[in-house]
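Lab notebook, page 48
Experiment: co-folding of the full assembly
Goal: obtain a model of how the components sit together before planning crosslinking
Operator: M.T.
Materials (sequences as entered):
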Amino acid sequence: MTKLDSNKKKKEDSLLNTAFSLFTAQGVSKTSISDIASKAGVAKGTFYLYFKDKYDIRNRLVSHKSTQLFRAALESLRASGRKMSYTEKIIFVVDDILDQLNENKSLLTFISKNLSWGIFKNALTTPLKNDDIDFKDIYTEMIADAPYEIDQPEIMIFMILELLSSTCYSAILYNEPVTLAELKPYLYRCIENMIESHYIKDKPSV
Amino acid sequence: MTKLDSNKKKKEDSLLNTAFSLFTAQGVSKTSISDIASKAGVAKGTFYLYFKDKYDIRNRLVSHKSTQLFRAALESLRASGRKMSYTEKIIFVVDDILDQLNENKSLLTFISKNLSWGIFKNALTTPLKNDDIDFKDIYTEMIADAPYEIDQPEIMIFMILELLSSTCYSAILYNEPVTLAELKPYLYRCIENMIESHYIKDKPSV
Amino acid sequence: MTKLDSNKKKKEDSLLNTAFSLFTAQGVSKTSISDIASKAGVAKGTFYLYFKDKYDIRNRLVSHKSTQLFRAALESLRASGRKMSYTEKIIFVVDDILDQLNENKSLLTFISKNLSWGIFKNALTTPLKNDDIDFKDIYTEMIADAPYEIDQPEIMIFMILELLSSTCYSAILYNEPVTLAELKPYLYRCIENMIESHYIKDKPSV
Amino acid sequence: MTKLDSNKKKKEDSLLNTAFSLFTAQGVSKTSISDIASKAGVAKGTFYLYFKDKYDIRNRLVSHKSTQLFRAALESLRASGRKMSYTEKIIFVVDDILDQLNENKSLLTFISKNLSWGIFKNALTTPLKNDDIDFKDIYTEMIADAPYEIDQPEIMIFMILELLSSTCYSAILYNEPVTLAELKPYLYRCIENMIESHYIKDKPSV
DNA sequence: TATGAATGAGATTTCATTCAT
DNA sequence: AATGAATGAAATCTCATTCAT
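Observation: model returned without errors.
Model output:
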C-alpha cells in the first residue's frame, strides 16, 4: 500500500468512526455531515469523496458493526475450546451477542433502528478482503453443521436472530416487559424448542 | 357535539390522515409539516393548534394504527363464533394480523419502523373514550384466559409479538429469507411451542 | 389593498430593485441570492416566497425593464405633440431608446445579455394591471398605423429592433467599430430604407 | 512535431472539443471544469496546464468557431467559381452562414450567447499560424473590394453582421416572428439596401 | 380559532484551485 | 508534464416555528 493509499484509508476510517459515535450519541437524523466532517478533522467536501451522502455512510456502518458483533461471538465460541452440541453452540453465540449489546447500549440502539435482514445477511456472507479467518465458512458451518440434518436452517437462524434482536431492544434499554436477566431463561428455552423442532423428523406438514 | 367541535374534529382527522399517507409514502423524515398542513387543506399555523410537532403526530398515529390492527384481529376472532383452544385463539389472531399487514404493506413499513413495545402496550391498555367494546378486557382476557395457569403470560405475549413483527417485515416486504406463505408453518409451530412451554408445569428453573 | 398586501408588494419591489442593481453592477452569475436578500433587508427564506430562483427574478426584471424602456420612448413621442410621418415616428422612438441606453449603460448590458424577442414581445403585448395608458394599443398602432398598408409590419419591427439592440451594444459600450454618434446616421438611413421597402408596392417576390 | 508535442496537442484538442459539446448541451454556467476534464479523459489539474479558467477556454472556442463559420462561407464563395457583383458576394456569404447555423443549432446558441464584435473582429484579423489560405486578405478584400469606393465599409459590415446574427437567432431557434425561410427575402433586400446606400454618392449628411 | 408571511439557522452540495506525489 | 486528493468558501434551498392580523 502506498503512502497515499494508507492516508486515504485513514481518512475514511476517521470518517466512519466519527460518524458512528455521532450517530449513536445523538441519532442519525440529528447528525449533520458538517458535524461528521469537522469532528473527523477533514473538510466538508472531503466527505463527499468517500461517501455519497449520510445514508451511504450509515449503511456501511450498520453492515460493519453488525458483522463485528457476530464475528466477536463466533470468535469467543472458537476460543472457548469447549466441546458443545449444536444447540449449545447457538445458545452460546446468542448469549455472547446479548452480553455485548447489554454492554454497549448505544450500539444496540444504532443497530436496532437501522439493521435489516438483507444488510445483515449480505454482511455475513460477503468475505472481507485480507481476512485471515474465513468467516463465511463459520456462518455456513453454523447453518450446515448439525448432528442430524436440519430442515430449513436459514429460516431457523432467521427466526432466532429476529426474535433475539427485537426482544433484547426493549428488555435491555427499557427493562420492558422484564429485565434482560429475567428474559433470558424464557428466550433460551424458546430457542431450544425452535432448534429441536427443526430436526428433519419434525418437518411440519404445510 | 357542537358544529364547531365537529369542525375541529374534522381538521384533526384530516391532519392525521394526511400525515399517515405522507409518512407511509415517503417516510417520516422526508415529510415536512408544511406538506402535511397544505395537503390537509389547513394553514401551517393550524397544525400547531393540534400537535406539538412532527413526532407528536407520528406517535399518535403509530398508537392508533397498531391498536386498530389488533382490534380488527380480535373482532374477527369474536365474529368467527368458533370454539377454540387458547393456543388456537392466539394463532388465529396472529394469522389475522399477518394477513392484514400483507394486504397493506405501507402500513407494515410505517408500524415496523416506528412501533415500540412501550407504545403498543400503552395503546392496548388505555381504554378509548366512547368505546362501546371494552377492549382492555379482551386484551386482559388474552393474557388471563388460559386452560391452565400460564407462567409469565406477558413475557410470552411480548415474545410472540416481537417474533411476529420482526419476521414478517422481511418476509412480506422482501420475501427474505422466504415468502410469508413459506414462513407461516414454521412460525406457527414455534408459537405453539412457546405457549406450551409457558404452562406452569414447564416453568423453567432460572 | 390591505396593509398586508401593500407590505408584500413593498418586499417584492425591494427584492426586484436590489436584484437589478446587483445584476447590473456585477452580473447575474456573480450575484447570489444571499446578496439580494440581505441587501434588500429581508431574510434569505423570504426570497423564496416571491421567486423560484435567480433566473425567475432575472426574467421578471428583463421583461419589466425592457417594457419600461419602450414605454418611456412612446410616452416621449406622445408628449412631443408633434405631427410626424410614420417613418419619423419610428426614428423618434429608436432615437429615444438609444439615448436612454446611452445614459444607462448598466441597463444596456443587462438587457442585451438577457433579452430575447420572445420575452420582449410578450412583455409588450401583455397589458399590465392597473395601467391607465393602454400600451398594447400604442404598440399595435405602431405596427398598424402606416400611411399605406405595410407588408409584414411585425417582421419589419422585429428587424429594426434587432438591428438596433445588437449594434448599439458594441457602439455604446466599446465605441466599436465607431461611436454611437457616428453610427446613428447610418443606422437611421438603414431603418428608413427598411420601412420604405416594406410598403406593399415593394413586396419582395420570394 | 515530436511525439510529445502531438500528445500535448491531442490533450488540448480533446479539452476544446469536450468543452464545446458540454457548453452547447447544457450552457457555460452549468458546465464545470471537473466535467470537462473527466469527459476529456484527463485529470482536473491538467486542465490548468492548458487554460487559465472556464472563460479562457470559452473565449478560445467562440473565436475559433466563429472564424470557422466565416471561413467556410468564404471557401464556398471561392469554390463556387462564379463571377458575382460585390453585393451578390455579400449575400452569398450571408446565405451560407445562415444555412450553416440552421444546420447546427447548438452552435448557433453557443455563438449567439457568447460572441461579441470585439472577439469576432479580433478572430478575423489575427492570422492563424500554419494557415495556407491567407484569411486576413480575404476579409480585407471583402471590405476593400467594391466596384465603387464604399463609404465606411467597416460600419456596413458591422451592421450587416449584427442584423444577421440577431435576427437569425430568434428565427432559426423559435420561428419567431417568422421562419428563417420567410425571413430571408426581407433580410436580403434589407442588406442590398444597406450596401447600396453606402456607395460614396450616398454618403449621408450628418 | 385560524391564518400564512416572515424568519434565519442550518443542511446539503458544488467546484475552482492548489499542491504533494 | 500529469495526476487527483484535498480543500473550504460559498451557493442553493429547506423548514420548524413564531406572531401580527
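Interpretation: The CA atoms of residues 151 and 198 of chain C lie 5 Å apart.
Next step: discuss with group before ordering constructs.
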